[in-house]
Amino acid sequence: MEGGLRIGGQELIRHASDGKPPLLPSWRPLVLLCCFFGFAGVLIWRAVDLQVLRQEFLLNQGNARFLRELEIPAHRGMIRDRNGEPLAISTPVDSVWADPGELLLAGREEIAQLARLLQLDTERLLTDLQGRRDREFAYLRRRITPHLGQKVIDLGLPGVALQREYKRFYPAGEVTGHVIGFTNIDGHGLEAIELAFNDWLSGQAGAKRVIRDRLGRVIEGVELLREAKPGHDLTLSIDLGLQYFAYRALKIAVQRHDAVGGSLVVLDARDGEVLAMVNQPGFNPNVRAELIAAHYRNRAVTDAFEPGSTLKPFAVAAALASGRYTPQTAVDTRPGILRVGGHVIHDVDNHGILSVAGVLKRSSNVGISKIALSLDRGRLWSLLAGAGFGQRTGSGFPSEVGGYLSPMPPDSGIERATLAFGAGIAVTPLQLARGYSAIANGGVLVPVSFLHRAEPPQGRRIMSAAVARQVRLMLEGVVTVDGTGTKAMLAGYRVAGKTGTMRKVVAGGYTREQHVGWFAGMVPVETPRFICVVVINEPRDGVYYGGQIAAPVFRDTMAAAVRLYNVPPDAVPGHPSAGLIAARGGKP
Questions:
Q1: What CATH number does the domain containing 254 carry?
Q2: Which residues contact 40 (CB under 8 A, 6 or more apart)?
Q3: Cα separation, 210 vs 222, whole angstroms
Q4: With the CA atoms of 236, 241, 247 and 252 taken in that order, what torsion angle do they form, in degrees rounded to the nearest 10?
């Protein structure tokens, strides 16, 4: 169609043959090209800025968000008894931690679910998180089982993660609690062997650099910074089997006599190794609620009492060493009372004229006082000091006390007399056991150790072998049917020992209501293998003599010891203890 449309006096004509669009302005392509190169330049500049100029800053920022230095825990060394039985082990556990700021981004219901799983109070958890939201790390709960830890992770809460740690476990629990001690929540020793050998048992934690995701999970290990070094194992001299028997015997006695407490120590007479050490009341180191100072204190090394008549063998040894006495020398104890200055020493009965051996057998205070007063002033004191009384044993046990022995030989007659029967001196059960090692070991005092030794230690002679043997034979007379230690008799074995009973010292003097009962002895007599000291503190059932309450504990513990170590019976036919075998059906 030709022609056009006239509008407003103008004719607009479109010819059918004209199909080309109208030409664009020449400046528009140039503008587009400039915009393209401008955007490309901005991108290139941004790339240079990020990859070159600000690379270190951005890497640090990225690392701060995802790269972490993770500690590699090192487990604490195992503690074993002399036979390899585990006494303390470290087991793997998990601790739950969180970034408080991230965790608070979760809903209240999710946080409440986490609190229920960890047995925490929801409101308190929220308050703690709010108070620490500016931190990146906060423990929520330490040392949970790996199974529970997996349940926590399965919740998928932001900022919550696990950290592998080790928890200390004590298989024997209360039986070895006082010897082994315990660690704090971070694995550092706080008491007893755990404290004494903390450096040896502690491992050195390692470290590695890892990448964590936003939930705190490790998704890639980057590099190992430091290898973890586990702690060293430790082998003690303790015999767990004998420890169980000693623990049971002492606990029964303390409960039977309604005593405030008690302690028992067993030493190897040959090398001074501690084979058993128990106390009552006890505590279980696996139960944190029982970690009360009054319970976990090892009273066998921290509590010192007047030893009473258990010290008389040393007075007799000093008398024999002086050359003025033999076991048969007569001592007149009549009428059972001795006045020394303005003081009176008395016996329970009037024993009449006794031999030196009889003084020990009857435990005569009058007799031993007369013997002590006849000696040179410093002779008994020197022997006691040489036996280690008044000083720590050197065992290395934390908090061990040295007891008390006057720094100089006593001058007054009453002090010299009372020292002979264990008054005016204070000793721990471990000290007394060590002192008896000289009597058991041919006059040689052996050092005490809680570690199992490969070689016997070098001892120190404090009396002659002849004197030590004479004292042992006299102590054997104490453990007979007419001695004070009858209840310590052991079927088939010759036993040497001494009873002791003392009133406790209180403000103003000695009390008549509170007593301490002792028994210290050894078995067999000729070649002693074991030394055992038992102390019962404040029995409240009306029975308080050491021969009644402590001697039976000695007997039961030594009966277990000779069985465990296959010590052959040494009582010859006709010996009182040999007859006990038949009476008990052939069993010791």
A1: 3.40.710.10
A2: none
A3: 5
A4: -170
Q: Both 155 and 264 in a single domain?
A: no
Specify whether the CB–CB gap between 346 and 418 falls below 8 A: no
Q: Are residues 472 and 457 in the same domain?
A: yes
Query: Tell me: the pLDDT tens digits for 107-147?
Result: 888 888 888 888 898 888 888 888 888 887 888 888 888 88
Is a pLDDT exceeding 70 seen at residue 10? no
Query: Nearest Cα to 554, choosing from 518, 515, 579?
Result: 518
Nearest C-alpha neighbor of 544 from the set 577, 522, 521, 511: 511
| Whether the predicted pLDDT of 78 surpasses 80 | yes
Predicted TM-score (pTM) of this structure? 0.82
Statement: residue 586 has pLDDT above 50: no
Mean pLDDT (the chain, rounded): 87
Q: SS3 of 542, please?
A: coil
3-state secondary structure of 189: strand
pLDDT at 582 over 80: no
Residues 453, 540 contacting (CB under 8 angstroms): no
For residues 48 and 227, what is the distance between their CA atoms, to the nearest angstrom? 39
Q: Are 373 and 413 in contact (CB under 8 A)?
A: yes
- The residue-averaged pLDDT of 471-496 equals 94
Read out DSSP for 41-95?
A: HHHHHHHHIIIIITHHHHHHHHHHHHEEEEEE--PPPPEE-TTS-EEEEEEEEEE
Provide the residue range defining the domain that includes 377. 240-583
Residue 435, token pair as written in the block: 């002192």
Claim to verify: residue 218 and residue 255 sit in the same structural domain? no
N-terminal to C-terminal alpha carbon distance within the chain:
140
Class of residue 504 by CB neighbours under 10 A (exposed 0-12, middle 13-18, buried 19+): middle
> pLDDT band at residue 573, thresholds of 50, 70 and 90?
confident
522 pLDDT higher than 70: yes
Domain CATH code at residue 183:
3.90.1310.10
Q: Alpha-carbon torsion 29, 35, 38, 39, what sign?
A: negative
Residues 213 and 305 in one domain: no
Count of CA atoms in the C-beta half-sphere (13 A) of 121: 4
Confirm if 545 and 517 have CB atoms less than 8 A apart: yes
CA dist., res. 232 & res. 475, Å (int): 43
The answer to whether the peptide bond before residue 447 is cis (omega within 30 degrees of 0) is no
Q: Mind telling me the catalytic residues?
A: 309
Asked if residue 211 and residue 264 are part of one domain, the reply reads: no
Structure tokens that stand for 171 in this block: 């298989």
336-376 pLDDT tens trace? 999 998 899 999 899 999 999 999 999 999 999 999 999 99
> Which residues have CB under 8 Å from 308's CB, separation 6+?
421, 422, 423, 500, 501, 502, 516, 518, 546
**Cα–Cα distance list, 230 to 116, 145, 166 (Å):** 35, 21, 11
Alpha-carbon distance of 549 to 486, in angstroms, equals 12
| 247 & 147 share domain | no
Same domain, 419 and 549: yes
pLDDT over 90, % of the chain: 59
Per-residue exposure over 10-49, b if at least 16 CB sit within 10 Å of its own CB, e if not = eeeeeeeeeeeeeeeeeeeeeeeeeeeeeeeeeeeeeeee
